[in-house]
Amino acid sequence: QHHPAVAMRVVSLVVAGVLSSEPPYPRSKAPVTTVVAVSGAQRSLAELLCLDTLAGNVARDSPVLYRVAGSGWATDEGDSYSVWLRNIQHEHPNVTVDSSLLDAPLASILIRFRSSVSSCLRSAGQDASTSAAITLAAAGEGYLVVDDDATEAAAKSLGLKCQDLRGETVSRVLTDEVIGNLSTRVIVFQDPKKSQFLADYAIFARAPALQYGNDTAAQQKLLDRSTGVGVCLGWGPENEYVTTCNQHGKYVHASDFNTNLALLSNTEPEAAAPQSAVDAPAPAQADYHSTGTAAGTAEQGDWRKQRKERGSAGHGGGSVHTVTFLMTDGDNLQWTLGPWATNPQWFGGSRGEVPMGWTFCPAAAMLAPSAAHAVMSNLTDQDELVAGPSGAGYAYPKAFPKGLLGDLNDLTTEGMKMSNMSLLNVIAQNDDEPDLDLLGEFITPAIGMIFYGFGNGYCNHKGKLWWIGDKPVVSGRYSLWGNGTSGRMLGVDALVAKLAEQAKTPESADGYSVIPVHAWTHSYADVVAVAEGLKKYEGVEVVKPSELIAQIQANVSPASSVFI
């Protein structure tokens, strides 16, 4: 079998030997000092890929190249990456933004960075050979990927020699030398038809790139060499993809349309986020044993006194049903770093009318710290970021190796501190009830947990409440999902009607409703419409997620629900 003879130079980033509890995201040798903005408008997909591979190579020393939607980045409110660039410019007065190459032809941009490239790898055009070329470029030094005749001609105009990889696959190029130069903690699973995204980060991070399920031999070989807790970027068929990555100790970032991660991951915010509630002393944890009861805690009869002594706010005995809304899919980095941040449907519009929970990836504070800080800085007093699902990245706790859950918990804790989060959202890979012993190892950074089964709009457990020590684990009761009029997945009017008839009993689990808001069928305006509709009814209160958890702790006896 033929394997291309691609010379591998000594790598310039450490790709192994890192403590597994440290973030899996590599750092450049030097911080960002100059950003060269390049417009993506009027460029072919092959040209965008070539520029991304150039950006990844340059970023190993210090990130410079940054793609924006068009030449009007300084005022563009619709392109989130333009917003992030302006934020970098504002927060880092010592960082210079150079727009001189915004609309420059590819050859002119390559000339500017000629010293960072050594040769090129020719692929066939958004097929398996493109993945092979990106993987070889990740393992090597200074390789551009050229995916068509025009980009090859531009590279050759600089005197670069191109090796033809057309017809190759990742399996065929994974020699021992190549695989030894690749990261053991980061894999990019990307459809080569979307190779104009994520290639910068794959090359910067020395991460292999391949389509999930398309080259199973290479996929298995790369997953089997995983060390410690790592991350899979890109995407695949959701349940299978997340499960497979989790089983090898890797959480997932849905990120197959992300750009500029090589630069964003190396741009720290100047100001720190407000101190998180994660830093506050946690309530005493229960001891676990096989009977499913709690030992080593005070008598359950003293529960109300204990919580009032901790300052938890209760209802004072009034008849009320408490509701909180939580937007789904905040783990999706391509969305939260993309249209979520700028589109008025979601976080980009006018907020503050009603209390609202937004799921958000805690690791965004590590992978795109300046952008994450900008999100935190734009929260109103009615907004709250909730970690997950399910922690540092998308994970099913049952699928993750038990020996790595502690390290995943450490990364989640750090991300929650950096993101000022106090509450954790966990999603299961099926509709089973939560494994409370397992989640007990996973809940340590949070005051409580919102637990979703995978089906029925995340509401298959119908508002059931469990306890881990003194921390409530609450399930969704109904969801704002589609336009259904019956069942658990409801439209605006049907949800108002259902919530209005719920029990107004703050001393029981029936007095509280967590409402997942499906990001792809409903907007913030729909949440406002539900809240407005509920004003017609007495005894329904809308609060932020952490406030609902605090009220459960203050008012509900663990004896009235599942307790371990």
Strand fraction equals 15-25%
Helix content: 25-40%
Low-confidence stretches: 1-19, 272-316
**What global shape is seen?**
globular
Q: What Rg do the Cα atoms give?
A: 25 Å
Give me the count of strands.
Answer: 24
User: What integer is the average pLDDT?
Assistant: 88
What is the first-to-last residue Cα distance?
Answer: 57 Å
Instruction: State the helix count.
Output: 20
Query: Given the helix and strand composition, which structural class is it?
Result: alpha/beta
Largest sheet report: 5 strands, parallel
In short:
This protein is α/β, with parallel strands linked by helices.
Kindly describe this structure.
This protein is of the alpha/beta class and 564 residues long. The chain contains 20 helices and 24 strands. The strands form seven sheets. Strands 13, 14, 15, 22 and 23 form a five-stranded parallel beta sheet that branches. Helix 18 (492-500) packs parallel to helix 19 (524-534). The longest helix is centred in the N-terminal third of the chain and has 15 residues, at 45-59. The N and C termini lie far apart (57 Å).
